[in-house]
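Ticket reopened. Same input as before:
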Amino acid sequence: MNSKSSSADRIREKKKIFLNREQKIIDAALALFLSDGIDRVTVSSIAAKAGIGKGTVYKHFLTKNEILVRIMLDYEESITQRLAEGIADAEAGESGAAAKAYFESRLARPELDRLVQHLEVRLIDASDVAAQLEQLHAMRRSNEDSLNSMITRLIERGVLEDVPPHYHYLACWALAQGAVELCFSRSWNYRLDSADLMKFITGVGVTIGNSGQYRDPSTIKSSAKTLKSPDSSKQ
Amino acid sequence: MNSKSSSADRIREKKKIFLNREQKIIDAALALFLSDGIDRVTVSSIAAKAGIGKGTVYKHFLTKNEILVRIMLDYEESITQRLAEGIADAEAGESGAAAKAYFESRLARPELDRLVQHLEVRLIDASDVAAQLEQLHAMRRSNEDSLNSMITRLIERGVLEDVPPHYHYLACWALAQGAVELCFSRSWNYRLDSADLMKFITGVGVTIGNSGQYRDPSTIKSSAKTLKSPDSSKQ
Amino acid sequence: MNSKSSSADRIREKKKIFLNREQKIIDAALALFLSDGIDRVTVSSIAAKAGIGKGTVYKHFLTKNEILVRIMLDYEESITQRLAEGIADAEAGESGAAAKAYFESRLARPELDRLVQHLEVRLIDASDVAAQLEQLHAMRRSNEDSLNSMITRLIERGVLEDVPPHYHYLACWALAQGAVELCFSRSWNYRLDSADLMKFITGVGVTIGNSGQYRDPSTIKSSAKTLKSPDSSKQ
Amino acid sequence: MNSKSSSADRIREKKKIFLNREQKIIDAALALFLSDGIDRVTVSSIAAKAGIGKGTVYKHFLTKNEILVRIMLDYEESITQRLAEGIADAEAGESGAAAKAYFESRLARPELDRLVQHLEVRLIDASDVAAQLEQLHAMRRSNEDSLNSMITRLIERGVLEDVPPHYHYLACWALAQGAVELCFSRSWNYRLDSADLMKFITGVGVTIGNSGQYRDPSTIKSSAKTLKSPDSSKQ
DNA sequence: TATGAATGAGGCTTCATTCAT
DNA sequence: AATGAATGAAGCCTCATTCAT
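Engineering reply: fixed in the latest deploy. New output:
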């Protein structure tokens, strides 16, 4: 019995090690993508960074693309969770909460958000990982349904303009997307006070499509806060 | 004298043919990038699509990257021109004209706009074409200066919120950027009525940072028009 | 413990195989360079001759040039060793020993010696392998120092003419260099009895710069031996 | 008649221009080979340097190799001429004159001499220009015959050691060959006083194979001069 | 006649994936 | 189970030569 349980323990132990290693691979890949750029990361370099052999990577992932898609899924999950909380808050009355949560989660690590977008471009039309991409889209569809319900209610309550519900969240998505790119764009000179800038943009996002009739107190507050950032307050 | 002028003609003719071929290469490259994705386009395939030999491509461009950067420059120039017109209109009193022109020019061919963004990511850190990229940035800096002047005046006139001028155009940029991505995102179900959606987003962009104090009539009109688009009005 | 040592053994075994393959590549490259000429040898052909895949070559050498430089280093080492022995003999009293050793080692495989010279011409200005070429030059500088010391002593002893020491070994080097080329020059008709010819030249080399005052017995002997080679003696 | 002669003049004129251009091409090629290295010279660059179109080069030379071989032939001719003079002097009694002339002509422009050697390596086995290479060899054979006669006589007169005649001139050739390489070898530290060094080596060359019985006064003189070079004389 | 644009074979190198140990 | 050596397809670029103008 003892030996049996110890063998079971050993198996569990091994599984744990195995899963740990999987995370190690993902972390290594992520770190390299962010530091070196997608193009310059090879399976070899990932393995080296993870401290394992190249062959071992293929025990965990069938192809290189599966690592990429895994990073995307992990990220999407974290967004989904934050969004769900935000939607719950919004349903509870704090009308801008969903948009705010969404912006904040995407802007929390803009470099990661952007990486995921770029990964997606690479993977579209990749026949391996087609299934996982479908998973990704399923998650997003589910989020979309929640958003639709929530926004429909906000429109009914007169908080938001009466345009098709998806206009609201797609505009938000677009702005968030753009805000992320903005963090890395080399097109512009001003980039020093990006925290304030991001608050400004978040303010815009939170009020997108607000009808004039009604102003959500929480939104007003957050907008006010934005405009009272250190620099502005000195005036 | 006659023979002399005809030889000059011939030379001019040749140059024209040469430049035409250059355009052919760019067009072929562009078409392939859009249809197949940046990764899958090779110099060979560009040459094949342009109906010329592989080596000929290198008579026009020193490296593959130079083709990419050329596409970027051509595009940036077209944006710059449109923006300049918009800024002129804005200075002439139509306060939202610059933002509108900017959105419209970027959303006119969103697939191209997006391609250019992705090309830029690839080319950053490419030691060849560093000079051309600097050109690109110079154009953008120039645009930025014009925008700054214009927005400063609009702030003084009380049309726009009194935040640092670049908040306004960067927020606009971000939204435009995101709107472009939105056109191609496979994340969302609703994509049928994208023209209306884009108008909605443009409306958001045009009113970004408008102060409550003042509403530009032209902006109101355009916003109203947006919401009364054919589809919606039928309801 | 047994398994541990056997695993260590296995690793050692692998390394040996790996190094063997490296040698195989070098041998293949060398054979091809000698038979086909430097120009006509491609990485592909080397791989084919070595019986391995093209990619495998790049596991052992970062660039094609590294193969070339490796051949050079290996050769230079063998020369250095022979020369060191010769210098030791010379210091021990046999004054012509160094020159003789040098000539003999360079003329032992003249085709290889010549190849190495030609490789060097190709590699000068090759930014990769600059470090290895410096190694090569370091070896040579070290040889040069030894020669300088030795020759200085021979001059003091009155064996060699009192000219700057490097005149002696550079003249030797030049003659050896030329002798090597002579083996392959298609300029001349007589090439049948090259062994004797080389002995004659070696004799010249060994007595280069000998002062008239003194004749080293060993040198005389060797010179005599040269002229009494089988062919000549029959006359 | 007038028109006829003027047309003949025109034809002659044209021919002259044509030949001038041929020389221009050769000069351009030579200059580029010397400055940039054989590898880096393209037909394009030659044409550019010569100030003509690439296609025009092919009106003068059927292949690129023909330019190379032409440089070789021109050089060989200049050597031959100098050597012939030297041989004449030697026959007239100045026994070392031939060797001296040979050394001096080859060391007059060592960079050119070396270039020609390297060109030859490239061209061996080039099926085009095989005929011209044969011409080259014919010239050399002819030189060889002259040398043989001359040396045979010097041996008979007891000036030179009684070894096969070609031993003498081949040893000379080898030393000259090596001396040329020495000028460019990066193997050695000492290269400042190369003029003196070359005199020393020439001295060696001139006395190669001298029998002890007899010393040619001219040789002695030249050797003495060598050893009384500025540096040495200060001692 | 002079030109130079066009060609495409061929070279070097990279890297995802496989598989024997 | 872990390893990393081996593989070879595929990409970019060069340049001698041709040929239409």
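Chains D and A do not touch (no CB pair under 8 Å). The domain at 7-61 of chain D is CATH 1.10.10.60 (Arc Repressor Mutant, subunit A). Please confirm and we'll close it.
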